[in-house]
Amino acid sequence: HSKSDWRRALMDKVCLIGGLRSYIGLTGGVYRHVPAELLGAAVLKAVTEKYNVVPQQIICGNGVGAGGNIARLAALEAGLPESIPAVSVDVQCGSGLEAVAMAAAKIEAGEADVIIAGGFESTSTQPRRGYNANHPDYKGEETYSVAKFMPGIHRETVMLEGAELTAEREHISRAESDPWVLRSHKLAAQAAADGALSDIIVPCFGAVRDEGIRPKMSQRLLDRLPCVLEGGRFTNAANACLTNDGAAFVLLASESYAKAHNLAVQAKVRHSAAAGGDPLVSPKSAILALNALLQRAGLSHTQIDCFELNEAFAVIHVMFSRTFPGHEDGYNVFGGALAYGHPYGASGAIILLHLLKSLKKRGGRFGAASVAAAGGVGTALLIERC
After folding, report:
1. 31 in Cβ contact with 124 (< 8 Å)
2. What values do phi and psi take at 22, rounded to 5?
3. Cβ pair 279, 165 in contact under 8 A
């Protein structure tokens, strides 16, 4: 076999059965009194009931929870058997997709036959933290909510600063990014009106819609928005995603397990890839990870029918369109995080579920998902629709 054939065969046993997500709430919105583990538990329980399956393991992403093995806490809150182990993953924004990649690798390696993976987040109830007095960064009783992502720099605005610096270094203007913001809200509003995603959404805790979608988002509004950073010129409340609460999980199984339990397979997980880049311009890591994924799979971007990128910032859209031209119709088909929001630990599984729907809608074969995470780490996943 050629090297590319060998690479394509690396993951041939991992079946993506499907999954569910919650509605996505705004910080202080519909889920304002719902702890992360309870929101995760509601969706986790719904997945097990939908597919009538008892997983052998649960792998959950979570970025701003209280720490500890919050995945185990969510599994117990969901009423799942105590015998099922659960593992928490924290790659911040990339946590959910990395959790799925880890689950796929375990199944491919023969260490498990059925795993539920994804993640959950509650920015509404996230704790404030403080340094121990013994730590060199200790500044009295001051607390923080955003973790330290790189040596020396620890500021609440570090991710916004990263988007601003990316725009500066890549020569991206608001005029170039604004159409992507408008597109995201338009597509998301249309998907909501059509009920295009209703079969993958679990209504829970009184939620009836994705709270971040703005059907009336307009250029006039965008023109009026100031930069959210002092001295900045680019980043505003529309081209940077809001903060959110949400949960999403997918069910992965081996071919033999899926066949034995009569589970309909929607796609095969073919490859995953991770890439590191400059933490000061972390949005670029989504593109780095996509490039690594395509190289690993031996595919050209022209062979990918649908892309789902977690659009934490509009600069990601612009860099994608420059690097992989000609994919607008198959890119974030139902809109993205600029409209829906970005519940950090859940977002990877959310975009994977949206990718499945996009491939089905467009009759596509290959789909790629990618997330840029704090600290300059990107994670990407390639699936092939069955």
Report:
1. yes
2. -85, 170
3. no
